[in-house]
Structures are given as C-alpha cells and as structure tokens.
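Bench notes, afternoon.
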Amino acid sequence: MNTRREPHGAPPASLASDDRRERGISVYAEILDVPESEVLATFSARVGLPFAEEQLQAAGGASWAHPALTGRDRDVAVITALTAQGVSGDRLATHLRQARQHGLGEDALTALMTLLASYLGYPRASLAMEAVQDLFNTDSPSTGSMRNSSSA
C-alpha cells in the first residue's frame, strides 16, 4: 500500500489531478449501488444537481481516495459520524450496506454500535442499531453468511 506523503501532509500528487469528478462518480456508484452512468441522475434526484456536483468533486478528493484508509476504515468513520448526528433511514442504511460489502458483518456492526452508545449516548446508538438489525433481518438466506463475519 502506498502511504507516501507529500510535503505538509498533502495527498500524493496522483490524487490532486483533474479527474476528481470521475473519482467522485466511482465513489458514489459504490455508495449508491448504481452503475457509474446512473450516479448523477440518482444523486441529483436525492439532493439536487448543484449539491450533487459539489459532492462528486469532494468525494473525488483525498478523503475518499487516500491509500492510508481502506474502504472498511471509511465505512466505520462515516457510520460513526452519521450515528453521532442522529442520521438514520436510507442515508444510514446505504452506508451500512456498503460496510457489509467491505466485510463488516452483524457482529462487527453490533460491537460498533455498543461502543458508540458509550460515547454518543444510547438514543443515537440505538437508532443506528435498529438500522443494523433491519439490514440483517431483511437479508435473504444467501447473504445471511455475513452475519457473523468480522468483528470490530
């Protein structure tokens, strides 16, 4: 893994190129679970075109592409941030599904919510835990094998 840093903690030069939007589209294709060709329309329908375009640029930057963080690391960070803000519903569910794709199973997400309850408080962590339960309780038998994979 390349964790080379440029002066003053800047991301590697390869992350500063002009293709931020394309990288952002790739990031949101994974988050939204849609083909890259449908990202702009899907994302714009949720948040409007100006906001979607701005976020595609942001997601194409170092925060989503820096090699020092794995997809799993980012999932834990984003789920923690959303839980801390009391975000639930489709926003949280989208990131929980992505976390499951990156190897975070029910046990790991339950352990994360239990830890977060100590730091964020029971109401917000329990709301997020309900989303975890919904994710795994609505699984088809073919995805049930992810229940016990990986622990936090």
